[in-house]
Amino acid sequence: xxxxxxxxxxxxxxxxxxxLDHIETLYGSDELMWLDFELVDKRKAxxxxxxxxxxxLHDIEEHFIVPQDFxxxxxxxxxxxxxxxxxxxxxxxxxxxxxxxxxxxDLVIDFMFEWHVPFKAGYELLPRDQEYYAFxxxxxxxxxxxxxxxxxxxxVDVLGSGMNRNxxxxxxxxxxSLCRAHHSEIEQIGPQAFSEKYHVPVNGIKLDVETLKKIGxxxxxxxx
Length: 224
Known about the structure:
Layout lengths: L1 E3 L5 E3 L7 H8 L19 H18 L3 H15 L15 H17 L16 H10 L11 E4 L19 E4 L1 H10 L1 H8 L10 H6 L10
Antiparallel strand pairs: 1-2, 3-4
Pfam family, one: HNHc_6
Protein name: Phage protein
Organism: Secundilactobacillus oryzae JCM 18671
C-alpha cells in the first residue's frame, strides 16, 4: 500500500511482514535500500488496447507469415510466464486491468523491436505518448514518429553552439529518437508545432549510461 504524504513523499507499507534481518544482510544497517514499485491502473482493460494488440499481431503475421491465433497464444503464454502464472484476457467481459494489458502490449512491442518487425497496421494506435515506447525507440534507434530505423538521437535540451557532443554527459540530457527527416523538421518548425502536428510530447526522456553506450552515443560519463 502506498500513500502520498503532505510534503510530497510517498509512504510504502508492505502487505506482508518484511524480514529486517534479511534486509540488513543484503544492505547493511546504514545503507539506503533501493525499491522498484509500480502504480497500478485498476480500470478494466480498454477496447483501444485490444485494437492495438490485434493490429500489432497483424503486423507480425504479415512479416513472418504466421497464423494470428498462434501469435495470440504465444504472447498470452509469454505474459503468464512473465507474471508468474497470471492469465489475461482482452475480451469485453475481461477482469484484466489496464496495467495488465499494458504488460502484454509491452511484450509484443519488445518482440517487434527485437525482430525488426515494421509497425504498419498498429502504427496510429501506438502509445507514442508513453516513456516506455520512447525508450524502446531510442534503444533500437527507431524513429518515434514514423518507425524508420537508423534514427538520430535528438537532444531536446539545446547543447549550445560550439559544444562538443563527445564531451557531454548525455545522461543529464533529454533525448528522443527521430529519423533524419523528422530530426530536420523539428529543428525547422520548432518543438511546439512539431508536437501539435504529430500529437506526441517532445519533452524527451533521459537514458542511462549503459543504454547510451549500447546505441553508440559517445559522451563524458563519470568513471570513464
